[in-house]
Amino acid sequence: MSPWTSLVTVLALIVYFVVTINVGRARFKYKISPPQTVGNPDFERVLRVQQNTLEQLILFLPALWLFSIYISPIWASALGTAWIIGRIAYAWGYYQAAEKRGIGFAISSLSSIGLILGSLIGIILYLVKLPGI
Questions:
Q1: Phi then psi for 72, rounded to 5 degrees?
Q2: Which residues are CB-neighbours of 83 under 8 A, at least 6 positions away?
Q3: What is the 8-class DSSP label of residue 130?
Q4: What average pLDDT does the structure give for the chain?
């Protein structure tokens, strides 16, 4: 277990927790009662940040840990930190206007792709090195 990968995991969860809290705050601010999810474009953007972050988190966390195990915990943590920065930039931009989310989305998506492909390569290299195969 890498403390660096663990730290990045906790930070990513904190980012998700904050964007989730922001949905509750936006519901109150824009008077959007559950189960409503539409009615104010500002609220809808806040909700989309939370939903998209959750969608990305399910790819990010396993890829982060697999990369850490099969490639390097330090490089996994670096890519994971980039993902977190990308998610924050995504949220910050999207809260302002939908067209401002692109840079953050690109940063976090490229980080996830790097983690996923790196994990796949690391796993294949590990399997190739196994005796008896």
A1: -170, 130
A2: 12, 56, 60, 64, 107, 108, 111, 112, 115
A3: S
A4: 97
pLDDT in tens, 48-57: 999 999 999 9
3-state DSSP assignment of residue 32:
coil
CB 115 within 8 Å of CB 80: yes
Residues 6 and 74: their CA atoms lie apart, in Å, by: 11
Return the C-alpha torsion angle 119, 51, 16, 57, nearest 10. Answer: -10
pLDDT at 133 over 70: no
* Res 21 pLDDT > 70: yes
**Could you give the CA distance from residue 8 to residue 2 in angstroms, rounded to a whole number?**
10
**What mean pLDDT is predicted for residues 96-110?**
98
Chain centroid, CA 13 distance in Å: 9
Residue 33, number of CB atoms within 10 A of its CB: 8
- pTM value is 0.95
Kindly state the tokens that stand for 58: 């399910």
Query: Nearest 10 degrees: CA dihedral of 3, 51, 56, 12?
Result: -10
Calculate the dihedral angle through the C-alpha atoms of 98, 99, 103, 108, rounding to the nearest 10 degrees.
30
